[in-house]
């Protein structure tokens, strides 16, 4: 049966009465926390997700079917699932992982469903839009690029030797110090829908998340970096908590800011959000943010009772206050 794609725009009606247009960039659990926060402030929410995962269920599906890795896209959809019984049931279903002695072991039901939609419809964005309608997502999920990507990194082994490592899983767990990350292919294309979401945004947010494999890759897609740089939207950088990712081992908060600047030297940032307790005892964050990006550093308590995990309600309160400071009204729903 042919599904009429002309119906797709009605899935995501946009109205300024429903809050500002917010675009959040990232992947995995960091983006999940940010989306859970932003959905309390607006119904005009878009997640732009990295597509370089090469491990687990996503990596297996990517290799077998030559598709975008669906895992981080699925996580974003789960974060946006509606609060009704329907939405919460589908959230649990798409997050479900099979346990067996056969080939389905450790596959996510949502990954399989997304891949099936892609094969049926022939287009990644169409498939994600139909998936969003199924779970009654309060927002849209879009890929960072239209093709699956490979992350590579220049890594210092601790003895002054630089080696190149390849693959998101390898980069994320390397025992060395990451100096620079790259994408293969070097200049991947961005989706038109993704670029349009950035152009129309009132607010752009980067982070939190695995800095080199979830946050930095957005700056390595030339069309996407250009759209972010050219945008007049309020730009927020949400910093990680200590110890929340392996690849950030040994980095202080000012280092995350420095790394972003090295990968996107022409980028302007308006606010850098940092956990106030985590920032205690660290120096130079506010100065680094101001000198490199012209940004104001916003200190607040954002950690949950689980160490290293952001509390979405606390994040939502911080984002609300930041946007109020920037003169952007929100649609508060909590």
From TrEMBL:
<dbReference type="GO" id="GO:0005737">
    <property type="term" value="C:cytoplasm"/>
</dbReference>
<dbReference type="InterPro" id="IPR010119">
    <property type="entry name" value="Gluconeogen_factor"/>
</dbReference>
<protein>
    <recommendedName>
        <fullName>Putative gluconeogenesis factor</fullName>
    </recommendedName>
</protein>
<dbReference type="InterPro" id="IPR038136">
    <property type="entry name" value="CofD-like_dom_sf"/>
</dbReference>
<dbReference type="Pfam" id="PF01933">
    <property type="entry name" value="CofD"/>
</dbReference>
<dbReference type="GO" id="GO:0008360">
    <property type="term" value="P:regulation of cell shape"/>
</dbReference>
<comment type="function">
    <text>Required for morphogenesis under gluconeogenic growth conditions.</text>
</comment>
<dbReference type="InterPro" id="IPR002882">
    <property type="entry name" value="CofD"/>
</dbReference>
<dbReference type="GO" id="GO:0043743">
    <property type="term" value="F:LPPG:FO 2-phospho-L-lactate transferase activity"/>
</dbReference>
<comment type="similarity">
    <text>Belongs to the gluconeogenesis factor family.</text>
</comment>
<keyword id="KW-0963">Cytoplasm</keyword>
